[in-house]
Every structure is written in structure tokens, then in C-alpha cells.
Design a protein that fits this description.
This protein is of the alpha/beta class. It contains nine helices and nine strands. Helix 2 links the parallel strand 2 and strand 3. It is elongated, with a radius of gyration of 25 Å. The mean pLDDT is about 85.
Length: about 325
């Protein structure tokens, strides 16, 4: 029997979560899975908490405040106990009925990750435009071979997340992060439904944060193990520029030019040399910090208020914080 943990971050989704929970339960029952449903309440201010506590079966995690979708995804993944992990949004736009097909695709092709591709999106024009712009930038910086990395509907083998901590808006780049670690990634077209209740949580702030995290993933992919390669190369470039300006200054001096009348070459020389030295120093410091990072435990960026397990037989277990 296939075991699967379905992880759903929710934030102010009182009008969607009961129906979504029922759809997940019906899909898993029909497929014959040994399953658990995990809802992570990311500091909702509406009736989301009240409704979640009535749903069964459900493993329910409540945050003390709003920490963001990535933090909620990370907490849910860490609470998962089954062989496979399915993630999807709490707004009801991802269709749980796609999960069995995605699991079959993963197993038939011996993959570690299967990402959903919302080929026919039911979003607003502005959201589709922003998403396509983000996908283009992601293609340039983090080419993971996925058409729609922003789709939350994904299937993972649980071992993918051993030692992985998610921050910022990195849930969009999980396939890229895992691919860097050597895991195999695939993609299938999935159904995408229009939102029927509540308001979208995406805005320009999240777009900016996502772009910054994209740069972080790019740096991690290219230079995390050896940051001196990047910073040292930049230091070398500025060193060459400083040397060139130094030669320029000497030539002007030998030709009888007064430095007081042309101070730009010596100023540029000093500037570029200082920048070169700083780049090398930052590179060495980054090398030491990375070695420390790989050698110590990394704390989580969120705080859990309560963990409640509502079983199918009507009993409730409070796991505490």
C-alpha cells in the first residue's frame, strides 16, 4: 500500500479548507492510499483555525503568527511520516484528483520529484503576466527544466528533504534545490481551477522576495561550496582595473603631467585596489562561513503554537508546541 502525506499551507482560507479537505480524503480513499492530511495554519485571522479543528482525519499545525507560505510548507514537510509527500495550495485551485496520476508518473519513471504544470491557468491576467516574467527570469538563472515551478501541487519522495530547510519564498524553487542535490525531477500537466472563495495572497512584495530568493538559489547552485570562486574572480577583475589605472597614472607622470591637474587616474587606482582587496577578504570569510554552515544545525525561521491530530474515529490529540 502506498503511503502519502498531503501537506497544505493555509492562510485565511475559511471558505475553502473544508471542501479541500473532503476532496483530499475522497481522492486518497479512492486510490487506496495509507494517508495523512497535514494542514499548517500560517497565522490566519479568520475562522480557519476554528474550522481546521473540526476536520477529521487531520494533523493540524498552528503557527503563532504569519511566517509565510514557505515556512508553513517546511513545517508540514517536517511533520510528514509517509513514503511520499504531496503539497498543494489551500485556496482550492490545485485539484487533489491529480495526485494519483502524479504518484503513478513518479513511480513509473523512477523519479524523486514530480511537479505540476498549470498549462491552462485560471488566474487573473496580471497574475499570469507576473508569473510568466518570473518563469523567464528563473529560466535564465535557475534552469531546472520545469515549466511551472510556482505550482504548489508537487509529489516528493520523503527522503528528498533530509537536511533541507526552506526559507523566504523558496517553496517555488524546491525542484531546483533538489535537482542541485542530485534528485531526479519530472513534470506533468495538471488541472487548475478558478478561486471560488477568499482573496489571492500574491502581491508585488512577494514577487520581489521571490526574485531575491531566485538570486540566492542561483548563488547556492553555482558558488555555495566555493564562494571564493565568485568573489575572488571579481577581486581579480578589480585588481586588473586598478593595475591598469596605476599604469595610466605612471605614464601621465612620466610625460610631465601634474597629478594635481588630473587626479582621476590615481583615485581610480586606489579605489579599484581597495575593492579588489575587499572582494578577496569577503571571499575568504564566506569560505569559512560556509564550512561552519555545513557543520552545524540550522534553526527554523518559524514558531509553532500547537500541533493537533484529529483521527478518523473522532478522537483528538494535542501535541503541544
Amino acid at each position: 500500500m502506498i503511503g502519502i502525506s498531503v501537506v497544505v499551507p493555509v492562510y485565511n482560507e475559511e471558505g475553502n479548507i473544508a471542501k479541500l479537505h473532503r476532496e483530499i480524503r475522497e481522492t486518497c480513499d479512492k486510490a487506496g492510499y495509507d494517508y495523512e492530511i497535514i494542514f499548517v495554519n500560517d497565522g490566519s485571522s479568520d475562522r480557519t483555525d476554528e474550522i481546521c479543528r473540526t476536520l477529521r482525519p487531520l494533523k493540524y499545525i498552528q503557527f503563532r503568527k504569519n511566517f509565510g507560505q514557505t515556512a508553513a510548507m517546511d513545517a508540514g514537510i517536517k511533520a510528514a511520516t509517509k513514503e511520499f509527500i504531496a503539497t498543494l495550495d489551500g485556496d482550492g485551485q490545485n485539484d487533489p484528483a491529480d495526485i494519483p496520476h502524479m504518484v503513478d508518473h513518479l513511480m513509473e519513471n523512477d523519479l524523486d520529484v514530480v511537479s505540476g504544470w498549470r498549462k491552462n491557468r485560471k488566474d487573473t491576467l496580471m497574475k499570469r503576466f507576473t508569473s510568466r516574467g518570473a518563469n523567464f527570469l528563473r529560466f535564465l538563472l535557475v534552469h531546472d527544466g520545469i515549466h511551472d515551478s510556482g505550482c504548489s501541487l508537487k509529489i516528493y519522495r520523503r527522503e528528498c528533504f533530509a537536511g533541507v530547510n526552506l526559507y523566504g519564498e523558496q517553496h517555488r524553487f524546491i525542484p531546483a534545490i533538489l535537482q542541485m542535490k542530485g534528485f531526479s525531477v519530472g513534470e506533468v500537466v495538471v488541472n487548475h481551477r478558478p478561486r471560488t472563495s477568499g482573496k489571492t495572497k500574491y502581491n508585488w512584495r512577494r514577487t520581489i522576495k521571490g526574485f531575491v530568493d531566485m538570486i540566492s538559489v542561483w548563488f547556492w547552485h553555482k558558488y555555495a561550496s566555493r564562494p571564493l570562486h565568485l568573489l575572488g574572480s571579481l577581486g581579480l577583475l578589480f585588481g586588473v582595473l586598478g593595475g591598469g589605472c596605476g599604469i595610466w597614472s605612471v605614464v601621465l607622470f612620466l610625460r610631465g603631467y601634474k597629478m594635481s591637474n588630473n587626479i582621476i587616474p590615481p583615485i581610480l587606482t586606489v579605489f579599484f585596489v581597495i575593492i579588489a582587496i575587499l572582494m578577496f577578504v569577503f571571499g575568504l570569510m564566506s569560505e569559512m562561513m560556509m564550512k561552519t554552515y555545513y557543520g552545524v544545525h540550522v534553526d527554523t525561521s518559524y514558531s509553532i503554537k500547537a500541533v493537533v491530530e484529529n483521527t478518523g474515529d473522532g478522537t483528538e490529540t494535542d501535541g503541544g508546541a
